[in-house]
Amino acid sequence: MQNILPIILALIAGLCVAVQTPSNAMLARSTGSLWLAASISFLGGTAVVLTTWLLIDRTPLATVRQAPPWAWIGGLYGAFFVAAVAFAAPRLGLALTLTLTIGAQLTTAVILDHFGLLGLDRSPITLARVAGVSCILLGVLLVRR
């Protein structure tokens, strides 16, 4: 059971990204502002995360001082992602937008794993990993056609 929970959560997260993208795109289209839509998206997410932290987790705020400086900018990546896919999805279609982002994510992940960057354990690039990422990138091309 311990190994299945991360898999289930990752699958649900993927589902959430697929639903979040058109939701944010519709909000941007309805309001006429990509930035307002992204702000509303992040405000809603922030409210849920803060409420969960306050009610369930309660890790002391002082612990954040232990994090390296680069760990503080994760939200910037998320903000860019939300705005970029909300912009791209209505122009490219949801499937192409998400396959492009997944291809970029996996390519970057293999590189980060290989070098053990950003605090990750090293996991060398293997032929199997290259083949897997290549299949995903081929999938991007197939979805595009």
Automatic annotation (TrEMBL):
One Pfam entry name: DMT_YdcZ
Keywords: Membrane, Transmembrane, Transmembrane helix
PANTHER family the record matches: INNER MEMBRANE PROTEIN YDCZ (PTHR34821)
TM ranges: 34-56, 68-88, 94-112, 124-143
InterPro entries found in the cross-reference section: YdcZ (IPR006750)
Protein name as catalogued: DMT family transporter
Domain of life of the organism encoding this protein: Bacteria
Coiled coil, from the record: none
Annotated GO CC locations: plasma membrane
